[in-house]
Amino acid sequence: MKRVLSFVLCTTLFICIVFPNQALAVEATFQGTNFENGVSYVETLTVDSTSRATGRSWTRSRDYYCSNQLIATIGITATFAYDGSTVSVTSKKVSQKVTYQGWSFSQTSFTSSGGTVRLKGKLKKAGNDDISVNLAITCDKNGNIS
What we know:
Blueprint: H1 2-18, E1 25-31, E2 39-48, E3 55-66, E4 69-82, E5 87-99, E6 104-113, E7 116-124, E8 131-138
Antiparallel strand pairs: 1-2, 2-3, 3-4, 4-5, 6-7, 7-8
């Protein structure tokens, strides 16, 4: 038993030394609000945990559902730099814009200001009400995300 445990520990240590820069992700998933027209979403917030201590990349994405069918996946990724007194956006991108079931996504703006990146747009389908999309990632001067 001791040999097996020693082998497992040595193998784990070897992997950590040989592959230290492999991207690791930490995810949190939230259930979204139901809109009046029966559309809901599930939101996922992911951080690249290998980023340095004074800057990190975050991805926020939403899977939108209408009548329990996936109609769209919309996501943004932003990298922030912070030092305890200031925060800035160093990069941003719309990382996902996929629609299904005849829906389309129309982007109206993609902005960054201070420590906030925001995507606005509408999900549209003939015969259905438009769904407003307002997706944002905000980082404070200490690296806390909301």
